[in-house]
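Consider the following input, taken from an annotated entry for Cytochrome P450 (Rubroshorea leprosula).
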Amino acid sequence: MVSMIHMDISMALMILSAVALYLVWFRFITRSLGGPRVWPLLGSLPELIKNSSRMHDWIADNLNSRGGTYQTCICAVPFLARKQGLVTVTCDPRNLEHILKVRFDNYPKGPNWQAVFHDLLGDGIFNSDGDTWLFQRKTAALEFTTRTLRQAMARWVSRAIKYRFCPILDAAQREAKPVDLQDLLLRITFDNICGLAFGKDPQTLSPGLPENGFATAFDRATEASLHRMILPEVIWKVKKWFRLGMEDSLSRSLGHIDKYLSKIIDERKLELASRKQDGTPHDDLMSRFMKKKESYSDEFLKHVALNFILAGRDTSSVALSWFFWLVSQNPSVEEKIVSEICTVLMETRGSDVSKWVEEPLVFEEVDRLIYLRAALSETLRLYPSVPEDSKYVVYDDVLPSGTVVPAGSNVTYSIYSVGRMKFIWGDDCLEFKPERWVSEDGKRFEVKDSYRFVAFNAGPRICLGKDLAYLQMKSIAAAVLLRHRLMVVAGHRVEQKMSLTLFMKYGLLVNVQPRDLKPVLMKIRNDGVEDGMMDREVREQSLE
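Applying the prediction step yields:
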């Protein structure tokens, strides 16, 4: 009996000692973090869950109160906390330049990210590092610098605007029925990026808004891949092995995607062989890769297409959704955009307003819309399509802010927060102010430091499709605002959805109303009279 009591006392002392040692270690490890509250064992997980509905604003609040950089511990367990459990969060432009450019090789996407997206994206350009990434980057960069690709994008965009997007909005206006603009924008950008990526329009944006098997499979595969991000690797791998839950959905969706793209590749090979005789070009990305002297596998070509669809679809549509919402809240900005569009069209198409809406703007006209680009850039500053991104730390390093980042840990850079810091953008950083992007004379777009404006990433991984994205967004925005006024449906809640892309949680329900151009033309006429820029005949015809 005595020995049993001694054993119990010894066990109790051991447990108390272990707890005491853990608490001493916990106090030591968390003392230097300076981020949100860290709990024993659970780390910052309770705080993350508590603020999950406003994650990006919560991160911005933490960064704002800590000078732009802080560290937190996801897992407060010895031997893990200083490596896998430690996350450095920053929005300091000095740190961003260090991570994305100066020490680029030390901050890859990392093994966890690659494992999560490998089934969908393989070793494609957006899911690879090192030599694999570099080879694809150089190959793709050659294609994105060609005028042919830009002309192809303009053609796909114009076609979708003229024959499907505008008619659907016109019908909604006639019938006085609200539409979910975010859904329409997702469809048109998906159709456009598929056309650019592999030369086939899935026509998800059509009357009746039909379902498309490839689009549905792609959405489900993306959702299932993102679901892996919130699970420990061992858990989702077990679910994958037994095809449970989302992993079963992912497997079936990938099979559908593979079958769809295999058919396109086989057809394209036959088309390219036959077109050698008549010289008719195929200018989509997949065809351009297939026509190179290097021999690429079908698997590589599929991943080329999927990687660019993932990058080009959600980002532009989400940006446009926030743009139209912000414009609807800021009538003075809307008036300036419409005035700029009318001024350009008056110079390129004459004073007959009826001719302005016959065809979407060509890209020479789109290029002249400086204030519209400023408004889109201001939207992306406040509501970047990808609000947060992360990197893996290969070797111990010290950031310019003085923060020590150990090998094996992760760094998150908050793109959302960069645009909301007073020390970066000034006291008016939360205002929607396109003028900050325009020169004083209003004739030039002011390019900002890419480490203060990270919506298109920065450094060696800066977005190759940046110019194409602006082309698409400006074309769609100009077509809509020239024809319609969009009013958010009364009572509709506009909230952020917590995902890798900054979707609106409940979509964007809007009423579509006709655009009255007479007040805008009157103002242009009056300004023209004052500036001596318009002759009498043009002034009079513009008001007819």
